[in-house]
Every structure is written in structure tokens, then in C-alpha cells.
Amino acid sequence: MATATASVGSATKNGVRRELFKSPVFDEVGLPRDSDNLYLQTVDTMLTAAEMLELPHEVQIILAQPKNEIMVHFPVRMDDGTFKLFKGYRVQHNNSLGPYKGGIRFHPDVHLDDVKSLALLMTMKTSLVRIPFGGGKGGVKCDPHALSRNELMRVSRRFIAAISHAIGPDYDIPAPDVGTNAQVMAWFADTYESLTDSNRNSWDAMRVVTGKPVEIGGSLGREKATGQGVVDTLVEIAPELGIKVEGMRFSVIGYGNVGSWTARILGRMGAKLVAVLDHTGAIREDKGIDTEELAGHVAKHGGVGGFGSATKVSTEEFYRTKVDVLVPAALEQMIKEQEAGWIDAKVIAEGANAPTTPAGDRVFNERGIEIIPAILANAGGVTVSYFEWVQNKSCVTWDAEEVDQALNRHMVMAARRTKLMRQRFNCDMRTAAYIAALENIGKVYAVRGIFP
Ligand code: NAD
What we know:
Distance between the termini: 36 Å
Largest sheet: 7 strands, mixed
Strand content: 15-25%
Radius of gyration: 21 Å
Number of strands: 14
Bound molecules: nicotinamide-adenine-dinucleotide
Helix content: 40-55%
CATH superfamily of the largest domain: NAD(P)-binding Rossmann-like Domain
């Protein structure tokens, strides 16, 4: 077990950097101190904010661990007739505000601690945007690209069957994440509905997941929602950081759902995409990249590599490209100390979850680079998921304009809450967003109390 790295700081208060893992709660709940562990980093950020807010101690210890950690193993028949055993997780972090809510990831690197971290982030996110959901997350350790469509369907159905006793339309509501999509949600919903005693109420059982295809109750606007939310937040915050969205230069890491939608919406608003990095390489074009054409290229070729007349550049050259805003929208922990030192941007708008390590945070703090944290910037996806759930529950459908307007209201209010806390506590935006989220959860515990 590694010990705390004293030189790696996280949040700042009054400009003074604090060290990692200072909270006594780590010892009390039996958590180790390991500065490379994503879950421990996330708990540390949460506890730092909790201490500044003077959140009651009992709420701090409750939030330091998830309520439930479910781990399952299940066999799936492959196309060649052999069977493979898969491992899946569902972590239910907190449901004091409403049913557990969070995506399910299919990826070879899914690990329990990462899922726990993402579940805690969901609790913070739903509270910050004030939707009546708690936080959860799940995953299956697999490479969805190496599975045939039928194998993917069987993995999806067997996984949801294995956790069907632990989820429900008013208890725990999964959604898509990296490696899953609307089709996988349709298989999830169909399997859950078939297995539950809901023959006369089948449509209501479909509410167990969001991010469904529109044909079976999905919401208009869900596909672009996270990117739209990144843009809504940026528009609200950019002016006071001295940035005008129209005409600004930006770069993106990842051109999947979040990265491509963020880029396309910003492109339509007159911002200029100058560099993109994804798993197939990095491209740069100072005159600006056509965001729609790039989306078409990625749909056809699987990545940005080989796009049009853009110049192929190295990863380091990508990071060193001068921009106003950089949008990380790929995987966790990509921006470490070195990348943070290379980056030439005024603002980082975190489309991905936890893309910046605490060491990266410290470099950004020192260099005066602002971060719009993930729990604020990428909360648009779960917000429109909530709209989908409300539409299903009340048997109505909203048009696209209604969805966009309601999303914008939630994002703008969440951004304002964050700015307010930033002023009140004189801290960085990440800590401020956590404080705004925790204040809401603290109030709920204060009125509900803790059973018995
Ligand atoms: P996606 O699978 O659609 O896209 C992932 C992107 O990451 C791809 O463009 C891929 O090329 C890129 N990528 C993968 N490995 C890479 C590497 N080593 N270097 C550079 N790029 C790499 O996933 P998504 O749904 O867009 O999610 C991206 C991030 O946003 C994740 O952190 C996810 O948890 C978060 N997020 C997604 C949503 C949503 O609604 N989809 C909501 C909130 C947060």
C-alpha cells in the first residue's frame, strides 16, 4: 500500500494548497492512503469540501463509502459454442436524494475502485444539479468491440439478469456509459421487464433504465445532452474568465458521444476546433476543423486518425496547442502532472469523469488555469436521463426544445451555485462544486435523520 504523497496537493483554501488524505475519516472508515487510486482521490476531494463546509461528521463517514457494492460473475455462450465467465459490478453509493442513478460501462479496464469512484461522482452530480436521484455506477469487464452483436446482447442480458434483484424503476436506474449505448439499454429494459413480476405493467418496468431508444421511451435530446450541458456551463462561466465562445479556439480529447457533441455544438456557435486527440492519434488544423465532417469520418473509420487535410501530430504537440478551452472527453486520469505542464489553455472544461489527477490539478492551480469540474460540466447527461424518467412516469413526451430549455435551466443554476460557493469559500471551482452538492445532501440528512 502506498503512503500519501506529501507534495501532491488537491484543493486550495485562501490560496494555500492542502495535502492529500488529511481527513481523519480515512482511518475511521478503514480506507488506505494511495495517491494513485481514483476512488481515494475522489473521497479526498469530497472530504476536503465537506470539512470546509463543516458538514456533520456522520454524513462525512456515510459518504466515504458506498451503501452497497455488488459483484457478480456470470457465464455467456460465445458464437463458437464455448462459454466465457464475465465479471460485473453495480455500486450503489447513496440514495438519500432519490433512487440510485448512474451508467453501466463495458470496458476491459473496469475495476471495483473505479466504479466506486464514478458512483460517488454521481451522488455529487445529481445533488449539484438538484435532481431527485442518488448516485450509482456499474460495469462489466469486457471488450465490447471484440464481441459480435449476438455476444454483446447475451452479455447485456445475463448481466442485467444477475443484478435484476438489486435494481428497479424506483430503486436503481442504470444508463449508458463508455462501451454501452441505447441498444444495450433496450436489451437491459427488455430483460428486466421479462424477469420481473410485471406482466400487466410492462411499460412501467422499462423505466428501470434511461438512455433508451426513442421507440421504447427514450427522450429526445438525450444523445447530445452531455455535450449540450458542457456548452451550457461554458457559456455561463466563460465571460468572467475573459472568454467569448464565438470565435474561441478549442481542442478536444475523445471524439465519442461527449467530445463530438460538445465540438459540434460549439462549432455551430462559431467556436473553432483546432486539435483533437483520440485512441487513433492526434490531429491539428489551425484554420479550424469541420466538426460535422469529423463526426462523419469517426463514424466511418472509428477514430480521428487520417482525417482530411488536418496534420497528424504527436500527443505532446496536441497538448501544447494554444487554445482558449480544452475539453477532455475520453477516459479518467489522462491529464497527469506532465500533460498539465504541457497544456496551453485558459480553461479546462471536464466532459469526461475525473480526467485530471490531483497532481494535474496542482499544476493547473499553480499556472492559473481554470477547471470547470466534471460534476458540473458533464451533468447534462444525467439531467436529461431524469427528464426521460419523468416523461415515462407521467406518460408524456417532451419536444426537443422543451428538453433543451429545461436542461439549460438546470445547468445554469448549477453553474451559479458553484460560482457562489467559490466566492463564499474562496476556493477553486472543483471544491466549490462539491461544496454546493454537499450542502444539499447535508440538508436532507438534517431533516430525515439517520435511522433509527
Ligand atoms: P465514448 O465511448 O462515446 O467515447 C470515448 C472516446 O474516448 C472515444 O473518442 C475514444 O477514441 C476516446 N479514447 C479512448 N481511449 C483513448 C485514449 N487512450 N486516448 C485518447 N482518447 C481515447 O464515451 P463517452 O460516452 O463520450 O464518454 C466519455 C467520458 O465522458 C467518460 O469519462 C464518461 O464516463 C463521461 N460521461 C459520459 C456521459 C454520456 O452521456 N455519454 C455522461 C457523463 C460523463
